[in-house]
């Protein structure tokens, strides 16, 4: 997979040299390139922002440096296309342009899985009050443009959001995580939060590991873990149970949910009372 990131603070993305993602880059699984937006300006001061039309606080990122930067990376992840399409075709799939913004659709594990299938992702890191809206309209001609939010809070720029998204997406690219089994049993992969985990010693500061985990009874352990997942999800993220497909529930799941105060209908999990 090719990934391009455009930012006025390329140093922010240095963390992508580290750990699993850094290793994946070294191994050639991720072709990740960070670009300085100011390299696409033409004035002496390398200006990237200006005052907003209509007034208001703060500055807005100028359109032209963004257009230059995005045009320069648009075709980078392709084989150059065919002779008569101006090099914009890569066989039908356009690169995805992800614009981190609190005004975007919320980033989820499902979205990470979808984006991990793409050949080319481009991330545009906005700063200040945002990027001139016309850039997103113009970019729609070449990219599949997706404003994406990490959640309902504001950051100073898109860089930290890109670190999170590249890590979440990159680890799903085949070969990046050494043991793909570890992707199966983790929070959100099945719509529930993960069960609690423990390691040695079995007794620590007068706290014991739940006995069932020492029993060697794998069936019972799996059942206990599933109950813990349901219990945690109900306590911490009841909104996830709202969306959960009730047809995936076993008899034991239903009994656990009933004990937790839920009513399980044919296709929904509803809080009782
Ligand atoms: C400037 O970007 C943000 O403030 C941002 C980006 C992605 N998700 C958010 N929740 C905020």
Briefly, what is this?
Specifically methylates guanosine-37 in various tRNAs. With 273 residues, the chain is of the alpha/beta class.
Detailed description of the structure:
With 273 residues, the chain is an alpha/beta fold. Helix content is 31%, strand content 18%. The protein contains nine helices and eleven strands. The strands form four sheets. A five-stranded parallel beta sheet has the order 2-1-6-5-7. α2 runs parallel beside α4 and α7 crosses α9. The longest helix has 19 residues. Bound molecules: methyl 2-azanylpyridine-4-carboxylate. The site of methyl 2-azanylpyridine-4-carboxylate (J9T) has 13 residues, from β5.
SSE blueprint and pairings:
Blueprint: E1 2-7, H1 19-26, E2 31-36, E3 49-50, E4 60-61, H2 63-74, E5 96-106, H3 109-115, E6 120-124, H4 133-139, E7 144-149, H5 159-170, H6 181-184, E8 203-204, E9 207-208, H7 218-236, H8 238-243, H9 251-259, E10 262-264, E11 269-271
The structure holds methyl 2-azanylpyridine-4-carboxylate.
Catalytic activity: guanosine(37) in tRNA + S-adenosyl-L-methionine = N(1)-methylguanosine(37) in tRNA + S-adenosyl-L-homocysteine + H(+)
Subcellular location: Cytoplasm
GO molecular function: tRNA (guanine(37)-N1)-methyltransferase activity
């Amino acid at each position: 997979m090719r990934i391009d990131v455009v930012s006025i603070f390329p140093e922010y993305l240095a963390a992508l040299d580290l750990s699993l993602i850094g290793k994946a880059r070294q191994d050639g699984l991720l072709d990740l390139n960070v670009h300085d937006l100011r390299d696409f300006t033409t004035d002496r001061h390398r200006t990237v922002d200006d005052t907003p039309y209509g007034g208001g606080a703060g500055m807005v990122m100028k359109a032209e440096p963004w257009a230059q930067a995005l045009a320069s990376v648009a075709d980078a992840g392709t084989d150059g296309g065919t002779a008569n399409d101006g090099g914009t075709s890569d066989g039908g799939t356009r690169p995805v342009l992800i614009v981190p913004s609190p005004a975007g659709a919320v980033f989820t594990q499902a979205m990470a899985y979808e984006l991990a299938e793409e050949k080319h992702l481009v991330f545009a890191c906005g700063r200040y009050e945002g990027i001139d809206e016309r850039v997103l309209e113009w970019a729609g001609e070449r990219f599949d443009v997706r404003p994406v939010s990490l959640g309902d809070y504001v950051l100073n720029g898109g860089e930290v959001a890109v670190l999170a998204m590249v890590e979440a997406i990159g680890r799903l690219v085949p070969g990046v995580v050494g043991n793909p089994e570890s992707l199966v049993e983790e929070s959100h992969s099945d719509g529930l939060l993960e069960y609690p985990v423990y390691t040695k010693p079995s007794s620590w500061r007068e706290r014991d590991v739940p006995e069932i985990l020492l029993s060697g009874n794998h069936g019972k352990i799996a059942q206990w873990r599933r109950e813990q997942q349901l219990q945690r999800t109900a306590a911490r993220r009841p909104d996830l149970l709202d969306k959960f497909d009730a047809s995936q529930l076993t008899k034991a799941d239903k009994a656990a949910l009933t004990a937790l105060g839920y009513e399980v209908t044919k296709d929904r999990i509803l809080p009782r009372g």
